[in-house]
Amino acid sequence: MSRNLDETGVSPGAATSLLPTVVIAGRPNVGKSTLVNRFVGRRAAVVEEKPGVTRDRVELEAEWNGKHFTVVDTGGWLGRGDTLDAKVAHQAELAFARAAVVLFVVDTSVGITTEDEEVARLLQRADSPVLVVANKVDNERRELDAWQFVSLGLGDPWPVSALHGRGTGDLLDKLVGLLESSNLAGADAGSSEIVADESVETSVEERAPRVALVGRPNVGKSTLFNRLLGEERSVVHDLPGTTRDAVDTLVETPEGPVRFIDTAGMRRRSRTEPGTEYFAVIRALEAIDRADVVLLIIDATIGVTHQDQRLAERIGQSGSPVVIVLNKWDIVDKEERSEVLDDVEDRLAFLGDSPVLKLSAQTGLGVHKLLPAVRRAMEAYGRRIPTSQLNRVVQALQGAHPPPSGRIRYAVQGAVDPPTFTLFATRRLPQTYLRYVERKLREEFDIGPTPIKLRIRLPR
Fold first, then answer.
1. What is the DSSP letter of 2?
2. How far apart are CA 80 and CA 87, in angstroms?
3. What is the spatial distance between Cα 457 and Cα 414, in angstroms, rounded to a whole number?
4. Which of 32, 82, 128, 346 is the most buried (most CB within 10 A)?
5. Which distant-in-sequence residues (6+ apart) come within 8 Å of 271 by Cβ?
6. pTM for the full predicted model
7. Which residues sit opposite 68 in a β-bridge?
8. Where are the alpha helices (DSSP H) in 30-77?
9. Could you report the per-residue pLDDT of 323-365, keeping only the tens digit for each?
């Protein structure tokens, strides 16, 4: 079946959830992210005792009694507020439309608020079943307080304490029962593409390359993320620090399935606020370490800053191939473009032959070049070279330019991701010569921008 592709090469709405989707909804600061962390068994969602910490839809896999499902942590729903609040609320409403089950979280210690009533009216029109989760029921006395939420018109509440785990087992039993009884193997059950065979499901997840979008705050990461997905998946606002969690989504593209990871903007440590922003940066660094390809996004109207350089160094340490993305290229003066490119070549020279893409996430200019660049980086990242060919090249490069002392007797490729070569040498080789060997290996085998590791083995 053919799909209409937009100019990015990604089908609109192609974000693929291979498991039934459970959406955690509610107004800000009722404990949604704490409940998500309880479900997944780790501190995956950022939690802090103030409203508005979660802004994007964060999708995580959870399991209970052998039943796997995707749990979606949404930003707090506010019917009234500033522009950013409205975008966060819109993200929550988009999640409701895809949900197999909605868990409507309310705060028993506060009682029913105007925002609770507005969310309830919205959910009463939803096609999916809704469970009212009365959170912060830390003792038996609070259980009586939970019954006030019956007046929301969405059925009996489920009293829980997400922080302490009280009642969450019973809630999960009910949730899994709903998922199983709703015959969620169909395409209309809150999943855009559900695969019944778990082995197929796992293989798709495992083979999909992880592509992390990283950069300083307000360089356009979330705008590019949404452009690649073909839908408004991350909250975009001209306020630095809008993205708090590392948001990842599996997307079916012409290049095959790709898992894109949108991360929080990273500032200098001295300017990073404690609490929410600190944990958001930790999530971003974790995303870099588990990525197969990193897109380093730079604001072309500003050029390469010192913080961009520091971030590039951190990416280089991860061992992942890098694609440099100059965003907002369409609004850079033509007279200044060559200067911007020279600045990239000079200040990011340590990234080697990393490709530089000039694009505009806002208009879509040049975005179609991104997926092919990712594919080429992945191919080079997993490149395996036959031992016979490798040794012919090693002997030829030594013949053209012998080592200052000793020689390389033999070479083997010990690993991929990234390509790792062991050189059996008679003596220790200087770093200048190893850089020469690396450059020749790149040229001869078209390894491209991916990192290369050289290990020296000396005779005992």
1. -
2. 11
3. 12
4. 32
5. none
6. 0.53
7. 63
8. 32-40
9. 999 999 999 999 999 999 999 999 998 887 789 999 999 999 9
